[in-house]
Design brief:
The complex is a heterotrimer of chains A (336), B (348) and C (330). Helix content of chain A is 72%, strand content 3%. Chain A contains 13 helices and four strands. A two-stranded antiparallel ribbon of chain A has the order 1-2. In chain A, helix 9 crosses helix 10 and helix 12 packs antiparallel against helix 13. The longest helix of chain A is centred in the middle third of the chain and has 36 residues. Chain A is elongated and about 85 Å long. The mean pLDDT of chain A is 87. Chain B is globular. In chain B, a hairpin with a 2-residue loop joins strand 4 and strand 5. The two termini of chain B are 29 Å apart. In chain B, helix 4 packs across helix 5. Chain B has 348 residues and is α/β, with parallel strands linked by helices. Chain B folds into two domains: 218 residues, 3-Layer(aba) Sandwich (Rossmann fold); 104 residues, no CATH class. With 330 residues, chain C is of the alpha/beta class. Chain C has a domain of 58 residues. Chain C is 32% helix and 22% strand. In chain C, the strands form two sheets. In chain C, strands 6-7-8-3-9-10-12-11 form an eight-stranded mixed beta sheet, sandwiched between helices. Chain C has a four-stranded antiparallel beta sheet with strand order 2-1-4-5. In chain C, strand 11 and strand 12 form a beta hairpin. In chain C, helix 3 packs across helix 4, helix 3 packs parallel to helix 5 and helix 5 runs parallel beside helix 6. Chain C is globular, with a radius of gyration of 21 Å. The two termini of chain C are 30 Å apart. The model of chain C has no long low-confidence stretch (mean pLDDT 89). The chains are: A mainly alpha (336), B alpha/beta (348), C alpha/beta (330). Chains in contact: A-B, B-C. Chains B and C meet through helix 8, helix 9, helix 10 and helix 11 of B and helix 6, helix 7, helix 8, helix 9 and helix 10 of C.
Amino acid sequence: MFQYVVKRVLSIIGMLILISVSVFALFFAVPADPARLTCGKNCTPAIIEANRHALGYDKPIVVQYFDFMKGLVSERDFPDDPVIAKNSPQSITHCPAPCLGYSATQGQLVSTMIKQAFPITASIAVGAFVLWLVGGIGIGVLSALKRGSILERGLVGASLVAYSLPTFFIGLLLLDIVSIKYGLAPPAGYTPFVDDPVAWAKGMILPWITLAMVFAALYVRLTRANMLETLSEDYIRTARAKGVPEWAVIVRHAMRAALTPIVTIAGLDLGGVLAGAAITETVFNLNGIGKTGVYAIQQLDLPVIVAVVLLSAFVIVLFNFLVDLLYAFLDPRVTL
Amino acid sequence: MSEQARHLLEVDDLEVHFPTADGLVRAVDGLTFSLEPGRTLGIVGESGSGKSVTSQAILGLHRGTPAKVSGRIRFDGVELLDLPIKDLRRLRGNDISMIFQDPLSALHPYYSVGKQIAEAYRVHHSVSRRQALARAEEMLELVGIPNAGRRVHEYPHQFSGGMRQRAMIAMALVNDPRLLIADEPTTALDVTVQAQILELMKKLQREFGSAIIIITHDLGVVADIADDVLVMYAGHAVEQGAVNEVFYQPDMPYTWGLLSSMPRIGSPRGQRLATIAGSPPSLIRPPSGCRFHPRCAYRGLVEGDACVTTPPRLVAGGADHRARCHLEPGARERVRLQLSTIDSVGER
Amino acid sequence: MTEPLLRVTGLRKHFPTKGGLLSRNRSVVKAVDGVSLEVAGGETVGLVGESGCGKSTTGRTMLRALEPTSGRIEFDGRDITGVGREELRKLRREMQMIFQDPFSSLNPRHTVGTILAAPFEIQGIKAPNGVKAAVRDLLSRVGLSPEHYNRYPHEFSGGQRQRIGIARALAVQPRLIVCDEPVSALDVSIQAEIINLLQDIQAETGIAYVFVAHDLSVVRHISDRVAVMYLGKVMESATSDELYERPLHPYTNALLSAAPLPDPVQQRAREKIVLQGDLPSPSDPPSGCVFRTRCPMAQQVCAEVTPAYAEHSPGHWVACHFPEDEQLAA
């Protein structure tokens, strides 16, 4: 067990290093010049070069990479140029460790941006997760138990429709009809939970529904299939033969077995949306991790891209790891 | 036993039919038998004869499925087929319990063996979890599982096949049932483990006095453990009676075929085995008349076409012996004398 | 004695158990651990034992369907332990195999005709009247109708599928067939038909069988000689009648006593030896004699010294420190 955890942690670290290298390599392979984007139409090569220097893009990639890695453990200054530091110290931004870099386009430290964006994404993700888990599993179990009924066909059909609709379409539909046309829900917006939980929930309700609908549909199908399979297992017959009441057969015996594999998928999906729900965030104009990442890519904002990709990757591998641990805990047949 | 010994279990004209896309599958079709307290009935038959379906019908396990069950099943005078599910549940696992062929799939993989036995106990007794678990441990010890105190916390996958079946038996007997139904309890086990399990069942029957229905395709198992035998073919009984009657005076061609197609350790080697021509009949459109007639080698001994047109009834051939066949008793006697299985009767 | 058709000497097949990169305690499962066996032309040798005793692995390894870890396999006087793929393909004409579940070894998309024609093409066997006629002939030899030519495997019952499996093995006119639990999944009446068929084919062609099964009465019925296996080793071997009438090894005795006889009076009257406990793990077999942990006669020496597999009386081999005397076994 301990050996397993050490092994996994080491492999996560290795993977993150590998990802950071690839992001750097990919970034410089793109035939676009980030320095060129820093000034508008009236650009001279001299300004571009000066900006390139100020941004640090004139250094070799390897040096840039090691500067970035060093920043994770020690502080950095932007721009990192003793001449500028001496002439105009007010234009220097200090970046305390762990330093993820400085976004020239945003004029902000990347860590500040992430700190602002992550709670938004986390709010969307966690709320939607609860919604889709409860809805998806509830409807899935119900449709398995009512197999062959009109209710089942309706539920399965509806989930199929929801599953086939693209996220942005659901989002826009909700925004347009529910919020704007009939005013049934407030437009999406982020209020920190600690400031005003009610406003937080109100502002999040549409993104939650949007994101949850897509996932819930998948969970309905998964849960239904798992439940049907489990209900035909011999041990369900054993439970009934023991005289166990039907509700307990379903909850203690069938659901216990049918839902355990879903834990894995749920954990991975939660990790996935925590890493950024780009489409939902964009539709509802919420500055979460996903939208920040999309914008950074449009702007060729390397420090932000690297940070977002690394954060996303970290969240995903972390959840992968947690799910494996949880699964070993839930399924006695699995040993680590 | 008193003269008016009440049957513990009476099954009367039981039918279990499953609607399918191809038509109605008559898995059990007019089965009648009874069982006395403390006795062991062996139900034998090949795959698809309806023996497992019968055992599940007794516990009402077809309820809530599309299967159509009709006829009468009386347990200790109580009609089970139209008993409210609440009352039936009080019988399940308490008065009538069951063990299954494959103990690995019949035990829940996510709960410890002890918890599963304790659950069977707690469903019918208001005791604390701890008391129930202590009872489970006691039962594991009773069925011969070493280190029961430790193993009670282990999971089914940590048990060997034989140990799992012991645990299943412990679970089935935890409420001291009056009837134990064992559906192919040793089929998945090795022969030395099978011997252990059969010995255990016999020992526990002596202690608990439960009646047992053992369902199997292995005539050796029946010969070992059963008092009475019921031979099933195509959904109903073709022969039934006391074990010695059926083994030494088998009274109809299917039983003859079953008994003589088995290679025996004691019989001379090298001779050809008797076979039963053809294959098991369709349960959707069973053969007319006697269901065994398309495979029967002795049809020619019956005058006319009774075998094809008229279903034979179960007719008593001895005090404790009935068979379903149009053959005259004299003709049956002559065939029996020809068959090698009967030779051993002569020696006896 | 003439040269046997197949002779295996000291055959071993060890499977490494999977262990992670960092896990130190890698172990091997000794599925077959030093089996020596001879099969004469035209005879049937039964391999019997309980699950996990290595009987199937032995059957497969001696055809080189599995690569032996060590040991020597001779076919028709020739060492085939190390022959290459091309040679092995040629050897398949001589040695074939049939399985417990023929359905999983029959391609569901091919008709029976195609399945049975394949061996002719692969082995380049000439059929004087054409492959199609040869296949029809095969079908009728195994008791199927030539009209079955265009049907698919799923249209057949379990017994008929086993007949197809036998026909496929027979197509190349082999001299040896390893039958791996060929009747275990079948109902008794069907089982009897398949056993009769195998015996008829043997009487007709003089083929040799290695018959792997767990059912003692079936093995006795069909085999000339029987080897009893336990935890990868042969415990005892003798002619069928000798083995069943005068078993020397306590394990053979226990096996025989455990198999229930379909005769109520005999079955209830006889004395039964019920073995205690379970099969030990084949990755960690007991020291000395592998059977000692369950043996009713085990002594101190059984844990210390591995009993030699030796000829106790002519043709009757046993690996036991205390083989039961004839008087005792009677």
